[in-house]
């Protein structure tokens, strides 16, 4: 690439002594030397414009190539003719502003300064035309400008070659990017097509569901219509429905009354047994009171129950009362078993004792907390009858036995009367 040169016109500005001796009329294209015609036509007029101007001057369409048109135009600029006049007019119009600015140069030094500034700014086409046609431009300045333009064209050529290399690289990169963009567009198009198919399928599903919904609504309407027709066809349907509801209510009330009657009968039966038992005990008490004191010393508590050989487990209580507990249980026909509730006996024996018992008496006042909850949980889980006694006395045990016997009697009566109802 050519290095940037120092403008040659500056070396010729000092050689001219005719700074204001020439006229004020600008030169015409045919007034310039032939050496300037080639750079003026090549630099100041674009090829497409040159072809159009030549066709306009000749009144037709020339078939020559760009080089032939350039050479022909340069040849015609040596004298005044239709082509040179058209070119002169276009150049003056195209660079009118630059020509106006160059009119301010009243000396050759000012003219050369304007040209040098144009070179450093890179805008030389209009400056070249305006400088060559300036009235103060002599042969020395013209030669310097032509030499500068020649070197600028060399630099421009080198720049163009670098630009071409850069342009080819950009073309290759653009091709790669274009192929990648084409692949991306293809994937995007394929993805859009897939989504469009999914949307179409979903819309078809929506249409089917709407159709099914409409069908169901129509069927419901038809069924409601048929139901109303059936209701209208049956006379006094509402009265029959009200009567049926009333019959159901009366049946439920009848069952409640029967249940109350059964409960009253059971209560009456229990009261009769209790009264008979009280009479029997009263007679026994009278007979007992007539006995000597040594016979009745340990039988001071009246008992109105009979355990019928049931296994009774007494959990807890005082160790000194165990013999009295045993005597009381065996007097009413039961088999006695005892567990101290975790005080001395092992807790592992409690489960086996509970499993063998038919009735459990839990002395809550003399029992460990753990044994209490084990007895309660076992009886609840197995459904065994369990009576909780707070006082560890023999009389409290007797009352607990009476309570358990009453519950067992009620349960037995309910099981006997349930099938007959």
Automatic annotation (TrEMBL):
InterPro entries tied to this protein: UCP020408 (IPR016772)
Keywords per UniProt: Coiled coil
UniProt feature coiled coil, ranges: 167-212, 240-274
Keyword Coiled coil: yes
Region (Disordered): 1-26
Superkingdom field: Bacteria
Keyword Repeat: no
Family, as annotated: Belongs to the UPF0751 family.
Protein name: DUF2325 domain-containing protein
Organism: Undibacterium macrobrachii
């Amino acid at each position: 690439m050519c290095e940037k040169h120092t403008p040659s016109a500056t070396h010729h500005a000092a050689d001219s002594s005719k700074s204001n001796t020439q006229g004020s009329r600008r030169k015409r294209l045919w007034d310039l030397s032939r050496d300037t015609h080639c750079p003026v036509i090549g630099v100041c007029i674009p090829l497409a414009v040159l072809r159009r101007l030549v066709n306009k001057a000749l009144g037709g369409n020339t078939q020559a190539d760009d080089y032939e048109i350039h050479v022909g135009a340069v040849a015609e600029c040596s004298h005044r003719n239709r082509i040179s006049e058209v070119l002169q007019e276009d150049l003056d119009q195209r660079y009118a502003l630059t020509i106006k600015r160059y009119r301010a140069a009243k000396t050759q030094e000012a003219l050369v300064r304007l040209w040098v500034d144009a070179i450093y700014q890179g805008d030389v086409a209009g400056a070249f035309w305006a400088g060559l046609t300036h009235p103060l431009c002599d042969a020395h300045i013209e030669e310097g400008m032509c030499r500068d333009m020649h070197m600028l064209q060399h630099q421009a050529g080198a720049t163009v070659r670098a630009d071409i290399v850069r342009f080819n690289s950009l073309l290759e990169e653009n091709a790669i990017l274009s192929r990648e963009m084409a692949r991306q567009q293809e994937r995007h198009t394929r993805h859009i097509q897939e989504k469009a198919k999914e949307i179409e399928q979903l819309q078809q599903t929506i249409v089917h569901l709407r159709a099914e919904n409409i069908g169901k609504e129509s069927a419901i309407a038809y069924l409601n219509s048929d139901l109303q027709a059936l209701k209208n066809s049956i006379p006094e349907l509402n009265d029959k429905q009200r009567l049926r509801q009333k019959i159901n209510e009366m049946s439920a009330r009848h069952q409640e009354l029967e249940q109350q009657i059964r409960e009253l009968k059971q209560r009456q039966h229990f009261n009769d047994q209790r009264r008979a038992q009280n009479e029997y005990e009263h007679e026994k008490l009278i007979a007992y009171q007539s006995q000597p004191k040594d016979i009745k010393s340990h039988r001071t508590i009246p008992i109105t129950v009979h355990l019928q050989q049931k296994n009774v487990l007494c959990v807890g209580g005082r160790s000194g009362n165990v013999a009295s507990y045993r005597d009381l249980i065996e007097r009413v026909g039961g088999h006695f078993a005892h567990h101290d509730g975790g005080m001395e006996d092992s807790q592992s024996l409690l489960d086996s004792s509970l499993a063998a018992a038919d009735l459990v008496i839990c002395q809550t006042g003399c029992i460990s907390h753990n044994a209490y909850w084990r007895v309660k949980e076992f009886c609840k889980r197995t459904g065994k009858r369990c009576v909780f006694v707070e006082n560890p006395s023999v009389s409290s045990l007797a009352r607990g036995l009476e309570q358990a016997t009453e519950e067992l009697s009620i349960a037995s009566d309910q099981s006997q009367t349930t099938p007959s109802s």
